[in-house]
Amino acid sequence: MSKKSRIKVIYVASPLRGDIENNLLRAKKYSRKVTKIGFIPITPHLYFSTFLDDRKNKEREVGMKMGIELLSLCDELWAFGKPSIGMEAEIKVAIKMKIPVRFFKK
Questions:
Q1: Are 16 and 27 a contacting pair, CB within 8 Å?
Q2: N or C: which end of the chain has fewer CB atoms below 10 A?
Q3: Rounded Cα distance, 88 and 68, in Å
């Protein structure tokens, strides 16, 4: 399948730290929104939080590195909510990689 005819892959960036439980629920909602539009959501913090503890710096660092690797495979980054420190890092990398970034209030 050519890149032009394949389904768009969207990197979903949203806050995780703080109210982790509710932030994960919101991330699911954002991923569902991307899916309903007809795109494929890549939401690393939903997946990585099942086996990495974001409250442990070393595990957070591993998750961020893996997320950036996944970002390189995406067509766009969609940022939901007020950008957190982690989101700001992802946005900077997306811009550097020339991956379009879209911002959504929620």
A1: yes
A2: N
A3: 12
d(CA 53, CA 69): 19
Helices marked H in the chain: 20-37, 44-48, 57-71, 85-96
pTM of the predicted model as reported, rounded to 2 decimal places: 0.91
Backbone angles phi, psi at 16, to 5 degrees: -120, -50
- Phi and psi, residue 95, nearest 5°: -65, -45
In this predicted model, what pLDDT tens digit does every residue of 69-104 receive, in sequence order? 999 999 999 999 999 999 999 999 999 999 999 999
**pLDDT digit string, tens, across residues 25-50:** 999 999 999 999 999 999 999 999 99
